[in-house]
Amino acid sequence: MALATPPGIGAIGVIRLSGSKAYQVANELFPSKDLALQASHTLHVGFIEIEGQALDEVVLSLFKGPRSYTGEDVIEISCHGSPYIQQQVIAACVSKGARLARAGEFTQRAFLNGKLDLAQAEAVADVIAANTAASQKAALDTMRGGFSSALKNLRERLIQFSALIELELDFSQEDVQFADRKAFYELINELTDSTRTLIKSFQLGNVIRNGVSVAIIGKPNAGKSTLLNTLLNENRAIVSEIPGTTRDTIEEVINIHGILFRLIDTAGIRAHTHDVIENAGMERSLEKMREAELVLYLFDVSDLVSESEMRKKEMEEKGLKFLLVGNKVDAVGSSVFKELNTVIPEVIFISAKEGKGIEGLKQEMANVILKGNVAAENTIVTNARHYHALVEAEKSLGDIKAGLDNKLPGDLLALDIRRSLHYLGEITGEVNNEEMLDWIFSKFCIGK
């Protein structure tokens, strides 16, 4: 039993009971009718009472197993949202034999009772934590079984050949082959391609789940703080004409096309300064640039010729994703602005002060990171545990392929096949251990 809604004052608080004694506990607190005789998926209004004293008027939602979230008998008590009333109802349930649920225990029971596989169960937590449209979409797809279906297809096809290989071992003295090695080789190639596609999708999945760090880099007075303020639509950073105003990094988050970008405004970078604090700030700027997943290199359009080519070469040599941004176009004429766009098309021209070109910059930021993949219907891996299991499965598939190339006997091939099946099954929970399950579900909120 646990409070399934956020703690604090609200209109309604929902307390969830699950287990074989859920109806027994609720019946002792809800004297107006015998709940065990009522139909599943019905609502009942009445008073929760203990020792003849009414605690609150509530609505009980009945779900009889296995037609419930956990697969067990479940009763949800919707009481008024006073924290005092919620604690009174919880204490009453405990006094009648219920115990408080552990973190994630309801979802863990759903997994153990076969209502969800492990990948779907983990996606429940991702849906709860989703803070953008893209992360919500990816989590819902996994929770609905999209990722699990892809894995199930991989495992089932591998299991079919595994069974034939294992059968050969029973007839090893007769030197017979039940598994067509050519067809098996083609299958391994196909499974390897599918696994690699899932592994590759993790780069996008990690962006969707955790966001993107974006370092805004440039010389002093290039307009970095102004750009941060314009992107956020608020005065977050101090703006001044005095070079070196920003001494330390400032970090804020913005949602662009369903992806969180963590914007980092850095101290201006210049060749010579005797200011110890400014030097420390510049060193942090360079460190943030190296760590960032995207660099916005901002420069004044008056430095265009000298800056753009040099910075482009510098970013490419460092292997960074970057956008070159020419700022302060408000200081040049419209004819010059048009010419700049024609001569140097790889530079995005903006006026951070007046907000010109900002929407175009946002679109390019999304394009660089997402490359149009977020709208695709393909399965996207967002969970690091799934990613590492897929990497190990790919290695095992590579070993199977090498074994087929070297014409290894069936018993050695069977070892690599079992290893590959193990890692694929580990993702969905078909292969698991108690410590792993406890670790996964301990990260859930209590009440889910």
Q: Concise description?
A:
The protein is of the alpha/beta class. The chain is built from 15 helices and 11 strands. The radius of gyration is 30 Å and the shape is flat.
Taking pLDDT < 50 over at least 5 consecutive residues as the criterion, the unreliable ranges are 237-248, 268-282
Secondary structure class reads: alpha/beta
Number of helices: 15
- Main pleated-sheet profile: 6 strands, mixed
In quaternary terms, these chains amount to single chain
The residue fraction in helices comes out at 40-55%
Strand order of the largest sheet: 7-8-6-9-10-11
The ordered H/E elements are EEHEEEHHHHHHEHEEHEHEHEHHHH
Average predicted local confidence, pLDDT: 82
Overview of this protein structure:
With 448 residues, this protein is an alpha/beta fold. It is built from 15 helices and 11 strands. It has helices at residues 22-29, 83-95, 105-112, 118-129, 133-143, 146-170, 181-210, 224-232, 276-291, 304-318, 334-343, 358-370, 384-405, 410-428, 434-442, and strands spanning 2-3, 12-18, 42-50, 53-63, 74-80, 212-218, 250-256, 259-265, 294-300, 322-327, 347-349. The strands form 2 sheets. It has a 6-stranded mixed beta sheet with strand order 7-8-6-9-10-11, sandwiched between helices.
Topology:
Layout: E1 2-3, E2 12-18, H1 22-29, E3 42-50, E4 53-63, E5 74-80, H2 83-95, H3 105-112, H4 118-129, H5 133-143, H6 146-170, H7 181-210, E6 212-218, H8 224-232, E7 250-256, E8 259-265, H9 276-291, E9 294-300, H10 304-318, E10 322-327, H11 334-343, E11 347-349, H12 358-370, H13 384-405, H14 410-428, H15 434-442
Parallel strand pairs: 6-8, 6-9, 9-10, 10-11
Antiparallel strand pairs: 1-2, 2-5, 3-4, 4-5, 7-8
Helix pairs in contact: 4-5, 6-7, 6-14, 7-13, 13-14
